Amino acid sequence: MNNPDQKEYRFTRDSLRKKFRLSEFLSEKIITGVAFLSITIIVLIFFFVFKESLPIFRSEKKAAVKVESIQKQEQYGVDTSVTSNASGQEQYGVTTKDTLMIENQAPERDTVAHGSEQATLKSLVGKQWLPVSDNPRYGLIPLIVGTLKITLIAMLFAAPIAILAALFSASFAPYWLREIIKPAIELLAGFPSVVIGFFALMVMASFFQNIFGYDGRLNAFVGGVAMALAAIPIIFTITEDALTAVPRTYTEASLALGATRWQTALFVTLPAATPGIFAAILLGIGRVFGETMIALMATGNAAMISANPFESVRTLAATIGAEMAEVVFGDTHYSVLFLIGSLLFIFNFSLNAMAEFWVKGKLVKRFQGKQS
Amino acid sequence: MKETKIKTKNLTLFYGAKMALNSISVDIPENEVTAFIGPSGCGKSTFLRTLNRMNDLIPGVKITGEVLVDSLNIYDKQIDVVNLRKKIGMVFQKSNPFAKSIFENVAYGPRINGITDRKKLEEIVERSLKNAFIWEEVKDRLHDSAMGLSGGQQQRMCIARTLAVEPEIILMDEPASALDPISTAKIEELIFELKKNYTIVIVTHNMQQAARVSDLTAFFYLGELIEFGKTKKIFTSPDKKQTEDYITGRFG
Ligand SMILES: Nc1ncnc2c1ncn2[C@@H]1O[C@H](COP(=O)(O)OP(=O)(O)OP(=O)(O)O)[C@@H](O)[C@H]1O
Ligand SMILES: [Mg+2]
Fold it and tell me: Model-level pTM?
């Protein structure tokens, strides 16, 4: 029972002088910066959406000017889709549809050559999705690849931002600020995705085009970032809950051992909340996976297999959304769309089940003992 | 009497508008065990937590007066709270192991202090666990989750975790209140050993425990320090009527 090397045990001003901890300083600033930046951007986007609708309420002359400029913007949107028929209000509705039709190659024409069932089944694992051509091919691979690609892009953006923002809110923000951030972001979770899609189509697409200089205005990247906007509130909320659910005694134990706030957040709070954060990410993936409107509006909807994030993609959900009006009841195409629906359902169901049961079980274990 | 380690002067604390401590002045000697007793809600924990500035974390806390450790005012603006807490360890009422292995729990303090050498960490962990009298019970399961230990073992592991940082003062807030008599006896024995090297302040509701382990006893009531002195004296012939009533169980 002897102490290590009987060192001089005294409290002195020198040994306790305030220290500047660079890593502490940097990490706190970075975390605060990211949190604030992302929150500001998200809030600004929603303000922008409202702001752009204001001209309607101004004098008529001004409104006319504005409409014209909106039409001009609309033209950009059409660039890729080759046709730009008639201008005017109706166009809004038509534009995206047009784009879709073109990629479908041939509109409406009744499927002439039905391959045998065998052929259909085989084509399911093929690389081409041409449901309404003369020789229809229902290859799901490009759709699945497209969906995974856009999910990956969305998660690469959404997960770090949402988790850092949640960490900031749960561990660093003063109480009053937390009381503002949390409900504000939770409100955003209920924002209709069609508005986000519209914003992505109109503004983000051009914005990113200017930065990266890609050709196709609408592509996986734009779609992915837009979907990240939809997923951030979900991931944030659940992560925040998981972080605040970490017992306060943990934080106190860590601080009482002489850990800084940052060390405590990083080494104690975050690891203790990993199952919850994992659940948050799973649910975020589920959100992106099933998201139809944004995919339809911002991804370009061309079914191709490519690793380039700036190529257009077509997701499973968007495929149903785009083609549902064109299929013939009882047709092979019709069945394939329902097959896609089943796939989506099964996938989302398993994600949610995983988040619910597996993660919860893990949490219980973690806080109540057993092997880890 | 030994040298004074902690000295408070007119320490007053408010939670918002509610006064929780009213002008407390005590001298806590080095290498002795000082016990705080008093009815629930009288401010024992609050006072204990002012000694390592844990109350800083609670919004709306206002503190006036001084806390001097080795005649250094720990509420001085120049003082680094993080380093201060390394020198003044704390053991909580409810054992609070991290959801990590036993080894990682004890190694946490040294690790955040920048010790990465595995050998050295192992040494520190072993020594700390031995000093907390729990080594024999856990040496074969160091890498199992600490959550799987019994309550008493968890509490001793938490003490080991505190020792691993090599503090000079250890504050204990009812460390044995949730434990069975055997574990309690082990903790008391441990406190007895620890006071050779550390200054110990312990909050307890258990009169026999205070009488057994402490050298000095302070009796708090409604945020005031009623009486402070040698444990023997407090328990045999207290000066104040209130103290006597509380100790003999005739209180309230
Ligand atoms: N965070 C807080 N905010 C507001 N009031 C508090 C807070 N913590 C404690 N108090 C109040 O301060 C007073 C002293 O509390 P404290 O926890 O110090 O009592 P205690 O003597 O440790 O009691 P116990 O023996 O039950 O642990 C109580 O009236 C309590 O309600
Ligand atoms: Mg208490």
Answer: 0.77
